[in-house]
Amino acid sequence: MKPSYLKIAFLDRDGTIIKDYPDEKWREIKEPEFLKGSIEGLKRLKEMGYDFIIITNQYLINDGIISLNDYQQFTGKFLKKLKEENIDILKIYFCPHNEKDHCHCKKPKQGMIEQAKKDFLIDMNNSIYIGDSHVDYLLAKHFNLTFYRINYNGDNVKSYRSILEISKQIKKIQNK
Ligand SMILES: [Mg+2]
Ligand SMILES: [Zn+2]
């Protein structure tokens, strides 16, 4: 039997699925606030056969702004809400390191996606990447993943207002 490769939507978390804040403000944030269109968009991507992997920089942990425990509590609430909406996340990869740690996982470094490729059989040619930052763009480009940006601030990449809008765009391309 041929092994079945997964079509993955790699997703950034903060500023892509849920609201992001200035670093210091994260001390107070205990509940994820889902961005408009993110849950509906994930549902549609799921219908189109995508599985979800989240890759997120969480340097606030090693910067001492949030604790690992804070991160885990928050992640529990985040996953619970998605579960209630029938959205499963295959795995969340997070990098707790800051610049001083010189790790191999902090985006745009490739460690988290390299690890995902070891953990799962991934059809990289048909997988996509959705994120809001330049580091997301750079990482997607490194792996030749089609990149969809939420919002626009900076370089020359077309952007979308929500994951919902992106899911509609992908559907349109598929139907051509
Ligand atoms: Mg982000
Ligand atoms: Zn790291």
From TrEMBL:
Name of protein: D,D-heptose 1,7-bisphosphate phosphatase
Residue positions binding Mg(2+): D12, D14, D132
Chief localisation class: cytoplasm
Signal peptide segment: none
One CC-aspect GO term: cytoplasm
Active site: residue positions: D12, D14
Family that this chain belongs to: Belongs to the gmhB family.
Pfam families, sorted: PNK3P
One MF term in the entry's GO annotations: metal ion binding
Self-association state and partner proteins as the record states: Monomer.
Binding site for Zn(2+): C95, H97, C103, C105
Location relative to the cell: Cytoplasm
Enzyme class: hydrolase
EC number annotated for this UniProt entry: 3.1.3.-
Keywords tagged on the record: Carbohydrate metabolism, Cytoplasm, Hydrolase, Magnesium, Metal-binding, Zinc
Cofactors required: Mg(2+); Zn(2+)
InterPro entries noted in UniProt: HAD-like_sf (IPR036412), HAD-SF_hydro_IIIA (IPR006549), HAD_sf (IPR023214), Heptose_bisP_phosphatase (IPR004446), Histidinol-phos (IPR006543), PNK3P (IPR013954)
